[in-house]
Design a protein that fits this description.
By secondary structure, this protein is of the alpha/beta class. It is built from nine helices and twelve strands.
């Protein structure tokens, strides 16, 4: 995958935090409208990748030991809680296919799996995570098991037994070429596709911003896309039909609407009768 994915995971914060910071302090998470990725990256400060990985790794270990129920981006939660629209889509796919075999792009150390694992019993499950090399190395070293596996590329993750779902949760906004990534996923012809926690903005074109994280949450700033709906839908619609969509819980900017959606691969056209 692209080296520019370095800023993916910093933006995935517990749902209440962006809303609280915006209301309490008027914090502006998204600023600017940049011409290209280089300009947006130059306007930001980046973030400390090693510190971020260490924090998420500590949280994931805590969850695995049973000392917390789940985590999101290193923030621990004591009480089980599902992201209900996503869980409904996962259950529907498992019920339809008799299995759940996920390629989770940008899945870190498996936080989505750990959060929802207690609701996904009774069917065979494989959860294949694609992420940056340092995260993959940590995942393989400490968390790989008969459910979780860790991979450097989508092609590597999709090898072997065919997966039935590609999950893109809060990933497309933080990639230099989101349409390129989505085209790669669509070309793999996964039976199901979920795009979640993604911001859309009214207007004819995508907007490239800089996302700024409050200091109390670690600081940092880096490029972040919000999308004109058609820029992504034009890639997905030819090969997929919409099954369900839902409002997202991220609320970083009043101008953007954060949404999730579940798509099913359209049947291949029948060959002409001779």
């Amino acid at each position: 995958m692209r080296a520019t994915w370095n800023s993916w995971l910093r933006a995935r914060l517990p749902a209440w935090r962006p809303i609280w910071w915006r209301r309490r302090f008027g914090w502006r998470w998204l600023e600017g409208d940049y011409a290209d990725w280089a300009a947006a990256r130059a306007a930001g400060r980046g973030y400390d990748h090693e510190t971020e990985l260490a924090r998420v790794l500590t949280a994931a270990r805590t969850v695995r030991r049973g000392e917390a129920s789940w985590d999101r981006d290193g923030f621990l939660f004591a009480t089980p809680a599902a992201h209900e629209p996503l869980l409904a889509a996962l259950r529907a796919i498992a019920g339809e296919d008799g299995r759940l075999d996920v390629v989770d792009v940008g899945g870190a150390l498996g936080s989505t799996w750990w959060q929802h694992r207690s609701w996904l019993t009774g069917v065979p499950i494989s959860w294949r995570i694609v992420d940056q090399p340092a995260w993959v190395e940590a995942g393989r070293r400490e968390f790989a098991d008969d459910v979780l596996s860790f991979h450097l590329t989508v092609a590597e993750a999709a090898a072997g037994a065919p997966p039935n779902l590609a999950l893109l949760s809060s990933v497309l906004p933080y990639v230099e070429s989101p349409t390129g990534l989505l085209e790669e996923i669509v070309a793999c012809r996964f039976p199901h596709l979920i795009i979640d926690r993604t911001g859309f903005i009214a207007g004819p074109r995508d907007r490239l911003t800089v996302q700024r994280v409050p200091p109390a949450l670690g600081g940092g700033s880096y490029p972040c896309w919000v999308f004109a709906p058609e820029s992504l839908l034009a890639i997905v619609r030819p090969g997929y039909s919409l099954v369900a969509d839902w409002p997202g819980f991220d609320q970083l900017d009043r101008q953007a609407e954060y949404r999730g959606s579940h798509w099913r691969r359209k049947p291949s056209p029948s060959p002409p009768v001779a």
